[in-house]
Amino acid sequence: MKKLYTAVVAATGGRDGHVKSSDGIIDLEMRKPAEMGGKSGYANPELLFAAAWGSCYLGALGSVGKRDGIDVSNATVNVYISFNEESSSSFVLSAELHVHIPNMELDKAQKMADAAHKGCPYSKATRGNIDVVVKAV
Question: Which of 10, 32, 50, 65 lies in the 20 to 30 Å Cα band around 84?
Answer without folding.
Answer: 10
